[in-house]
Structure formats: structure tokens, C-alpha cells
Design a protein that fits this description.
This protein is of the alpha+beta class. Helices cover 23% and strands 25% of the residues. The chain has five domains: 152 residues, Bulb-type lectin domain (Agglutinin, subunit A, Orthogonal Prism); 128 residues, no CATH class; 134 residues, Hepatocyte Growth Factor; 122 residues, Phosphorylase Kinase, domain 1, CATH 3.30.200.20; 191 residues, Transferase(Phosphotransferase) domain 1 (Transferase(Phosphotransferase), domain 1, Orthogonal Bundle), CATH 1.10.510. The protein contains 17 helices and 43 strands. A hairpin with a 2-residue loop joins strand 16 and strand 17. Helix 8 runs antiparallel to helix 12, helix 8 runs antiparallel to helix 16 and helix 12 packs antiparallel against helix 15. The longest helix has 30 residues. The chain is globular and about 90 Å long. The N terminus and C terminus are likely disordered. The structure holds 2-acetamido-2-deoxy-beta-D-glucopyranose (9 copies). One 2-acetamido-2-deoxy-beta-D-glucopyranose binds next to loops.
């Protein structure tokens, strides 16, 4: 300070220079101000710091964002104190703190250091970290920062940031969602590293746990379904003074961030030079099973097409006040250690939440089993680490909570659950009674009934009054024969039968499904559970119990069903009857023994059962069924939820589309029963629907294109197959344009398939998934293209595989826009089932 005049001019000069070059600088000194419109830019032009107004907000905030990708704010300083005018400045205050000042030098926000700093300088680093340090310190290691923005995370975890616990100060670093997309103030959702014996990552809604990963197993948070090891590496570090989570990317060409949205979804977003915006690599929770404890205690949640809850072996569903929800499974045998018990191994489930557990890291699996068996309250055990072939002993006491099936990649952390050695065998007698005694007893009455029926048949014009489902078989065999429809003439052959949709008594439907028992449950569709029903002659039917508290009147509902029942095509599942009684709405369908297409396609143990010819047959069948819905049926149905799990397979592997017409029946608020917090199967949704809610036959064509690719390749659209594209469509496009479409097939199929045919199918699929609906062919074009070998095919435009442009949300809450669309044109609703 020996030469004040010089110092003054010097700092003036620096100040002027600083203002002039503010676009190029990455540092702030006490003499520099960053005002509205000015920016700090990190040295490699990756991040920028400045003032911004999110969305429609009229307030200003100081934030850091990616320079290359628009609208991606990763950090906000003054989340709680918005700036109301354009006069705020960022500078370094007298005590060396980084401060945001208003017009009258009032402090809006401060880095809030308690200790004095001599020569402070703040710098925006290429990692997105804004750091405050001593100017002349030669020590540039991370620990030497006086303050850093990485220590105060907003809603985004960047590479290099840490989440977790400082054990010395007890301080926790975690992500907090924005309140809304326009308001960065802290919202209700947080994403934290929770230490409960072992570290987990959990999303909280206020203080309520919304979703958790499995415990850290040395490699990953158990049950991470995606093998992400080629993109990034998750890291948990447990040191004396801290336990933290962070991650590293393997590719410097890829930008990556983990973000918690205002709606509570945590997404991993990826951007690389070739993409037009952020790609959603991963969203959690993205199905019901990922909601914490969704199925209740001692129950496994599996995502087939939707969430399915199933009691663990040895447990049964407890009915509370005759309600099945909230669920809880209780031991089916009397008490611990009384019956003989053993452990069964589950390879494919996420470890239960660590509610009441013990951990001994020095025990091996064998000692663990012995220890668990000794203690009557021990319900399960597992290795705590998977590294080095597995080690450590985790034992669970009491109820097992938050268990879900993992599909696909699993990192090999089996759990052993205690079950009774054998189930009591008292059910057999009952069955003998049902199978042998009951039919004989009913026979006379049955014949009388049949004669009565025949007499009355002529009088039936509309809905029949309640019939007995158990005795439906005779009627049905007549009906199917007289009504076998031929392709493309749905209305032409209206026989007397097809104006009649039989209606069954609830009692008989209940009897056919063993009182809607869990054993009879086939699955949980978007509209409610589906059960297998058995008629007296052993014939099976599928019983769909619609889970809606309907706003639609019964009469309208029946009329709607009558219309749907008239849609008959060999590639549509037949609606055989219904039951509307005591507030229940139940639909009876023909039973499809081979389950659904996804049951075969995506299961590594079954996919080989689908040969090339079968796949061709399935594709052609789906195309015909869809063509009928779009073009030839009286109703012009848009399916809206076409996906592999909605394609059922009969005993000859003929495909039949199911759930068509459901959108017609379920307009309006009835959806909400099921879509409270559902995240879409966006893999099948056309961009105009996913982004703008627009729906037309062309959106079905898009879904068909996806289905076609999935059927040929046995790969899910939503998987990641190469580094350049983030789903199957992109992958297929890349290979196809290099003339390598062949590589999409498994080696076994490559031998079977004809090259021309495969190429034609892939081309048709790519035509179907073009971004613009107008470019996509109609179903009749599609059918002619896939059946006519000599058709010349147009050259597809690049597929619409970047739905998640600009990181847009793909999570659908029942928004007003959806219900609006529904009432406008009557048939615009899709049910989005989680997967
Ligand atoms: C600036 O901030 C101070 C203290 O927070 C406050 O009293 C003052 O009213 C603010 N001035 C303006 C113009 O907002
Ligand atoms: C600043 O720090 C002090 C103590 O270190 C604390 O009491 C105060 O709440 C902090 N202020 C802000 C705005 O964080
Ligand atoms: C730099 O600072 C850190 C933290 O204060 C310290 O641990 C480290 O030893 C210092 N390095 C040097 C070279 O002084
Ligand atoms: C946050 O939670 C409070 C109650 O805990 C609730 O009133 C408020 O609506 C919630 N806000 C959002 C955006 O969900
Ligand atoms: C979060 O909790 C609030 C009540 O505190 C509830 O209204 C809201 O639906 C919850 N949100 C989610 C996504 O669970
Ligand atoms: C996960 O992927 C990596 C790279 O693709 C591979 O090396 C590794 O074996 C895979 N791990 C498993 C368990 O499949
Ligand atoms: C449950 O239902 C049965 C028969 O339907 C009835 O007798 C019983 O009282 C019900 N229990 C409760 C708690 O509502
Ligand atoms: C952990 O297991 C080892 C080996 O069985 C045993 O010696 C040790 O006492 C156990 N530790 C605890 C805390 O139970
Ligand atoms: C079984 O384990 C629980 C929980 O660790 C413990 O409290 C209890 O004493 C154990 N019982 C026996 C018999 O070892």
C-alpha cells in the first residue's frame, strides 16, 4: 500500500479492462463487478455464470449454466432471495466474501465465510465450480478453496461434485429440487445419500421417503438395472471424516449431470456433440415398483408391463377391513422356528431396505447362513459386498420392505430368504371336491339352464341379464363358431350373436377366479388387475377387473362395450362378456395361453423360442389388426398404447392386440385412479404425443414401428445399445444407414432371416418412426410394404429418437391437457402404463 495513487490507477485499469473483457474472463477480484448482462466464462468455454430469469419468472437469479447447451442451469446462488430489478451486482466484499449486492449495497446473498481473507479471488472453473481462494496461494489443491459452489449444491450433481456427509461437522450435502420450472427456490423434493448401515441413494418428498436404491455393494447401488459401466462409474468413498457419493464419466466428449426435477424425478442427463439436446439416460422412480415400499411388507414388486405385487413364498396377503390396499403380507405359518424352515435364493431382486439389520463385514456367506438360522427372528441374509466374489454378512430381522424384481443386468448379489420347508397341503381335498363332485351335482340344473337358454335366445336383442360365467362355455363355443370374422369386413358379417354381449353375475365371476385370488392373478394392466378364470368344463378366460371409481354412467359404459365387442378380427383379443354389478366393472376376454409378446421377446431364456418365421407372422398379424382398427372397423379406433405387453399370443403364437378401445371407455378422470404418479413408457410414444399431447392414427403407426424393431431384434427401445444413440431407434438408424442392419439380429436369427426381407422390415420400421407424423405411412401402406416384396420403399428420414430434447420431462401426471384432448374428440386418451 506504499503507493496509493498507483494502486488506485491500477485497480481502475483492472476494473475497466475487467468490464470490457467481461465476456472473456473467468475470475472476479474485489475490484470487479459482474452486473446484469455480464458473464464469467470458464477458461474452456464450458460453463457461464451470470444473471438469468427462469421461464416466465419476473425475478432474476445468479446462476451457473452450460454455455454450449441452452437452458441448463446447474447452480443458483440466491435461491431464496430473488432479485427484483436489474441492478444487482456480484463482487467480492470487504471481508473477502463473494457477495450479491442490490442497488443500495444491501446483501442479497453471500458466500458467508466467517474468516477474513487477504487477497481473495473468485474463479469459475471448467468443472462448473465457482471457487473463492487466496490469490497468491501456490496451493491450488481442492482443499485449499475458502469457499466453493460445489459445497452448496442446488438441484444438480455435476462430475466432481460430492453428495453426502461431512462427519466432522455433521453437515450434509444433498440436492434440492426447484419449486417449479420457473422458480428455483427449494422445492419439496430432495435427493440424498442416506447412511443406514450401508449407504443408499434416496429421493424424499419433504420428510417422506419416495424411492431408494439398494444399498451400496462396493460396485454400485445394488439393483441398478442398467449396466452403465461403459458410460460412467459411481463412487462411494467412506473416509474418516466423510462419506460421499460422486461419479466419473469415462468419456470427455460427453457432458453428464444428475438432476432432481421439480416433480421429484431424478434423471441422469447426457449430452454429446451429436445430440440436439439432453438425453434422458435414466429416470427414477420410473415405475410403481421403484416407489418406496409400494407393495407393502414381505412382498415382491415386479414390473412386467405394470407393477405386480406378490407375497414372498411362505407369506400370504393380509386383508385389512376387507381391503387389499394398503397391502401387507404376513407369515402363512403360525410362528418363527416352529415349522421346519430353509432358505431360498433370489438372484434377481433388489435387497430389501435396511430397516432392522445387522452387518458383520468379517463373516462369509456360510457363517452368515448359520448365524441367521440360529436366530428365529432373522428373515433373510445376503453378502454386503459383491467385490471379490462376495463378502460380509447382512441379516434382516422383521418385515422385508421395498423388494423389487430386477430385469436384465444384475450385478450378482443374491439374497437368501427364510421360508417354511413345505407348504401345508390341505388345498388338495378342496380341488378334488371342485373337480369331481361339484360338476356332478350341478349337472341336472345345468341342462335345464341350457334348454331355458335356447328357448329365450330369440328374444335377446341387447344386453343379456346376468348369466353364470361358470356355465358360459356352451354358449361361447356356439358364439365363436358363428362369428369367426374374416379380415377387413368387421361390420359386414353382423350375425344375430354379435349384437349381444353377455353379462355375468358377480358371484359367478368371483367363483371362476377363486374370489379374485392372488393365485389366479395374471398381471396388473393399466386399467386394473387381470385374473385367469376357469369355467366348469376347464376352459379358461381372462377376467379384467377395471379399477375405476367411474364417472361414466353404467349405461354409457355398457353401450361402449357393446361397440367394442363388435370389433372382431383374428388379430384382436375377443371381448366375450362383462359384469357390471355392485360398482364393479369387469370384462371377460378370451384367454391367451402364451401370455404376451414381451414375455418372449425380452426374456433371455425365451427369446430363442421365437424363430424368424414366427416373428414375421407376429409382425404381419399386428399390422393386420391395427389396419382393421384404423380403417375397417366401424369405430376407427386409435389404440394409443400399442406395446409389446399389449400383444397377446394364442397357443399357435398368433398375435392378438389387446386393450384396444380402452381409451374410448376411459375418458376423463377415470384415468387418475391409475396414473396418480405414472411415468410413461415413452419408448413407444411418438414425439408429437410425448411432447405436445397430439394424437392421431400416425402415433399408432409410430408405436408400430417401435414394436416392429423390437420384435425383430428382441431389444427394448429404451435400452442403450451404442454410444452415439440412446435408444433402439437411433441404434437401428445408425446401422441401417451404414447398410449394417443385419447386425441388429441375434446371430441365430441372422442365419434364418432373408436379407431382403429384413432390410425391408427395418426400412418400414424406420419409415414409421419418422419425426413428422405426415411423413409416416398409413397402416394400409405399411401392410402393402411388408407383404409386397416388389414394393419400392421411400428413403426414411432420420428417426425421431431424441424425444427428450432439451431435457424435457417424460413423466406424465394427469395433466389438464390430456383430459382436454379427451373431451374434445372423444377418443384421445391413452393410458400410460409404467414399466
Ligand atoms: C437492498 O437490501 C437492503 C437489505 O437487504 C434493503 O434494506 C433495501 O431495501 C434493498 N434496496 C433495494 C433497492 O431493494
Ligand atoms: C452465515 O453464517 C452464520 C454462522 O456461520 C449463520 O448463522 C448464518 O445463518 C449464515 N447466513 C446465511 C445466509 O447462510
Ligand atoms: C494445500 O492445502 C491443503 C488443504 O488445506 C493441504 O492439505 C495441503 O497439504 C496443501 N498443499 C500444499 C502443497 O501446501
Ligand atoms: C410441499 O409440501 C407441503 C406440505 O408438506 C404442501 O403443502 C405443498 O403443496 C408441497 N408443494 C409441492 C410443490 O408439492
Ligand atoms: C409429496 O407430498 C405431498 C404432501 O406432503 C403430496 O401432496 C404430494 O402428492 C407428494 N408428491 C409425490 C410426488 O409423492
Ligand atoms: C458391463 O459392461 C461392461 C462394458 O460394456 C462389460 O465390460 C462388463 O462385463 C459388463 N458387466 C456385466 C456384469 O455385464
Ligand atoms: C368383511 O367382509 C365379510 C363378508 O363380506 C363381512 O362379514 C365382514 O364383516 C367384513 N369385515 C369388515 C371388517 O368389514
Ligand atoms: C463378526 O464375525 C466374526 C466371525 O464370525 C466374529 O468373530 C465377530 O465377533 C463378529 N463381530 C460382531 C460385531 O458380531
Ligand atoms: C436375534 O437377533 C436380534 C437382533 O440382532 C437380537 O436382538 C436377538 O437377541 C437375537 N436372538 C438370538 C436368540 O440370538
Amino acid at each position: 500500500m506504499g503507493n496509493p495513487p498507483f494502486f488506485f490507477t491500477f485497480s481502475c485499469f483492472v476494473f475497466l479492462l475487467g468490464s470490457l473483457l467481461s465476456l472473456a474472463t473467468d475470475t472476479i477480484t474485489p475490484a470487479t463487478l459482474i452486473g446484469d448482462g455480464e458473464k464469467l466464462v470458464s477458461s474452456s468455454q464450458i460453463f457461464e455464470l451470470g444473471f438469468f430469469s427462469p421461464g416466465k419468472s419476473k425475478y432474476k437469479y445468479l446462476g451457473i449454466w452450460y454455455k454450449q447447451v441452452p437452458d441448463t442451469v446447474v447452480w443458483v446462488a440466491n435461491r431464496n432471495s430473488p432479485i427484483v430489478d436489474s441492478n444487482a451486482v456480484l463482487t467480492i466484499g470487504n471481508n473477502g466474501n463473494l457477495v450479491l449486492l442490490n442497488q443500495t449495497d444491501g446483501i442479497i446473498w453471500s458466500s458467508n465465510l466467517s474468516r477474513e481473507v487477504k487477497n481473495p479471488v473468485a474463479q469459475l472453473l471448467d468443472t462448473g465450480n465457482l471457487v473463492l481462494r487466496e490469490k497468491f496461494s501456490s496451493n491450488t489443491s481442492e482443499g485449499s478453496y475458502l469457499w466453493q459452489s460445489f459445497d452448496c449444491p442446488s438441484d444438480t450433481l455435476l462430475i466432481g461434485m460430492k453428495m453426502g456427509w461431512d462427519l466432522k461437522t455433521g453437515r450434509e450435502r444433498y440436492l434440492t429440487s426447484w419449486r417449479t420450472a420457473d422458480d428455483p427456490s427449494p422445492g419439496n423434493f430432495t435427493f440424498r445419500l442416506e447412511i443406514r448401515v450401508l449407504p443408499h441413494l434416496c429421493i424424499y418428498n419433504g420428510s417422506v421417503k419416495l424411492s431408494c436404491t439398494g444399498p451400496w455393494n462396493g460396485l454400485a447401488f445394488g439393483a441398478d438395472p442398467t449396466n452403465t459401466s461403459y458410460l460412467f462409474r459411481p463412487i462411494v468413498e467412506q473416509k474418516e471424516d466423510e462419506i460421499i457419493y460422486r461419479y466419473e464419466s469415462y468419456s470427455s466428449r460427453i457432458l453428464m449431470m444428475l438432476k432432481i426435477n421439480p416433480s421429484g424425478d431424478v434423471q441422469r442427463l447426457i449430452w454429446h456433440e451429436m445430440s440436439t439436446g439432453w438425453q434422458v439416460f435414466f429416470t427414477a422412480p420410473n415405475n410403481f415398483c421403484q416407489l418406496y415400499g409400494y407393495c407393502g411388507a414381505n412382498s415382491v414388486c415386479s414390473v412386467d408391463d405394470t407393477a405386480n405385487c406378490e407375497c414372498l413364498k411362505g407369506f400370504k396377503l393380509k386383508l385389512q377391513n376387507n381391503q387389499t390396499w394398503p397391502r401387507e403380507c404376513v407369515r402363512s405359518h403360525s410362528s418363527d422356528c416352529i415349522t421346519r424352515e430353509r432358505f431360498i435364493k433370489f438372484d434377481d431382486i433388489k435387497l430389501p431396505y435396511l430397516v432392522d439389520v445387522s452387518l458383520n463385514e468379517s463373516m462369509n456367506l456360510k457363517e452368515c447362513e448359520a448365524e441367521c438360522l440360529k436366530n428365529c427372528t432373522c428373515r433373510a441374509y445376503a453378502n454386503s459386498k459383491v467385490t471379490g466374489g462376495g463378502s460380509g454378512c447382512l441379516m434382516w430381522f422383521g418385515d422385508l420392505i421395498d423388494i423389487r424384481k430386477i430385469t436384465g443386468y444384475n450385478n450378482g448379489q443374491p439374497i437368501y430368504v427364510r421360508v417354511p420347508d413345505s407348504e401345508p397341503g390341505d388345498k388338495k381335498l378342496l380341488w378334488i371336491f371342485v373337480i369331481l363332485v361339484l360338476p356332478v351335482a350341478l349337472l341336472p340344473g345345468f341342462f335345464i339352464f341350457c334348454r331355458w337358454r335356447r328357448k329365450h335366445k330369440e328374444k335377446e336383442t341387447t344386453m343379456e341379464s346376468s348369466q353364470d360365467l361358470l356355465k358360459f362355455d356352451i354358449y361361447m363355443s356356439v358364439a365363436t363358431r358363428t362369428n369367426e370374422p374374416s379380415e377387413g369386413d368387421g361390420d359386414a358379417k353382423g350375425t344375430r350373436r354379435d349384437s349381444v354381449l353377455p353379462c355375468f353375475s358377480l358371484a359367478s365371476v368371483s367363483a371362476a377366479t377363486e374370489n379374485f385370488s392372488m393365485q389366479c392373478k395374471l398381471g396388473e394392466g393399466g386399467f386394473g388387475p387381470v385374473y385367469k378364470g376357469k369355467l366348469l368344463n376347464g376352459q379358461e378366460v381372462a377376467v379384467k377387473r377395471l379399477s375405476s371409481q367411474s364417472g361414466q354412467g353404467l349405461k354409457e359404459f355398457k353401450n361402449e362395450m357393446m361397440l367394442i365387442a363388435k370389433l372382431q378380427h383374428r388379430n384382436l383379443v375377443r371381448l366375450m362378456g362383462c359384469c357390471v354389478e355392485q360398482g364393479e366393472k369387469i370384462l371377460i376376454y378370451e384367454y391367451m395361453p402364451n401370455k404376451s409378446l414381451n414375455f418372449f421377446l425380452f426374456d433371455p431364456s425365451r427369446t430363442h423360442l421365437l424363430g424368424w418365421q414366427t416373428r414375421v407372422k407376429i409382425i404381419e398379424g399386428i399390422a393386420q389388426g391395427l389396419l382393421y382398427l384404423h380403417q375397417y372397423s366401424r369405430l376407427r379406433i386409435i389404440h394409443r398404447d400399442l406395446k409389446a405387453s399389449n400383444i397377446l399370443l394364442d397357443s399357435d403364437m398368433n398375435p392378438k392386440i389387446s386393450d384396444f378401445g380402452m381409451a374410448r371407455m376411459f375418458c376423463g378422470d377415470e384415468l387418475q385412479g391409475n396414473t396418480k404418479r405414472v411415468v410413461g413408457t415413452y419408448g413407444y410414444m411418438s414425439p408429437e404425443y410425448a411432447l405436445d399431447g397430439l394424437f392421431s392414427v400416425k402415433s399408432d403407426v409410430f408405436s408400430f414401428g417401435v414394436l416392429l424393431l423390437e420384435t425383430l431384434t428382441s431389444k427394448r427401445n429404451t435400452g442403450v445399445y451404442d454410444i452415439e444413440s440412446f435408444n433402439l431407434l437411433g441404434h437401428a438408424w445408425n446401422l441401417w444407414k451404414d447398410n449394417r442392419a443385419y447386425e441388429l439380429l441375434s446371430p441365430a436369427l441372422q442365419h434364418e432371416a432373408s436379407y431382403q426381407m429384413l432390410n425391408r422390415y427395418i426400412t418400414v420400421a424406420l419409415l414409421c418412426v419418422q419425426e413428422k407424423a405426415a411423413d409416416r405411412p398409413t397402416m394400409s401402406k405399411v401392410v402393402s410394404m411388408i407383404t409386397n416384396e416388389h414394393a419400392t420403399l421411400p428413403y426414411p428420414k432420420q428417426s425421431a429418437f431424441s424425444y427428450a430434447r432439451r431435457g424435457e420431462k417424460i413423466s406424465f401426471l394427469p395433466s389438464s391437457r390430456v383430459s382436454e384432448a379427451c373431451s374434445v374428440n372423444g377418443v384421445t386418451l391413452s393410458l400410460i402404463s409404467p414399466r
